[in-house]
Write a structure and sequence with these properties.
Helix content: 25-40%
CATH architecture of the largest domain: 3-Layer(aba) Sandwich
Number of strands: 12
Strand order of the largest sheet: 2-1-3-5-6-4
CATH class of the largest domain: Alpha Beta
Order of helices and strands: EHEHEHEHEEHEHEHEEEHEHH
Shape: globular
Amino acid sequence: MITAHTKLAGLIGNPVGHTLSPSMHNAGFKHLGIDCRYLAFDVKPEMLGDAIRGIRALNFIGANITIPYKEKVIQLLDDMHGEIHEEARFIGAVNTIVNDGGRLIGHNTDGRGFMKSLEESRVTIRNKRVFVAGAGGAAKAITYYIAKEAAELRIFDIDTVKLDTLVRDLKKINPEVHAESSANAVTNSDILINATPLGLHLGDPIPIDKTLLKKGIIVCDVIYKDTPLLIEAKKLGCKTVNGLGMLFWQGVIAFELWTQTIAPDEVMFNALMTSYNRL
């Protein structure tokens, strides 16, 4: 029951109509008896600053940030004298904001969520040759962790400025991080990861030439459904991992940051899968 004491959390992005996050967070709040509700907010670009200020003004416990605002929100938090967690600052993207008594603290839980999902799928990055398509917010979050374990990391993006900046930063972690001018480098990799939005919408092209796929390569996607890329990989008999596990685990970490409690992960996962199976 919603009362005058009910707190709010939510997702800020554009678009957000596809999100499954409300189901798992609201299931977690209900299970723990926390008087809070999680909603999705489709925010136009020119209203982003107002939306972030609203987290404090309306006393939200916090919010998730999704495409296309994970990078843009950093500057807003700085302007508001907020705080950016060291990990999020290095990554250059925030996907979770915690309202700590009026201080808005930016975190990034995507990378940790992605690595946890690989662990559950029995995929190891350690000493592997990894190719990542994309150099945006999602790529920054996951490559921050991949660079710490991979033998070699190659990244491709059509935005060469964004790509070169990411590679320069990641070389501080691992000198074997390289920018690629085309997707052809995937042929020498053990693991391929799509960190672009391609595949989110019906009719999107595959981010690499499907003829470059080969049997034995592990193919992962940050999008939480079987994208055209994953479907093609499965046809070749490749092991595939979609982004559902990443979505789940980044949400669990965010939930714990907001509530300072241990998340009921089984309850939250069951709620997430119920929504997922309705897609």
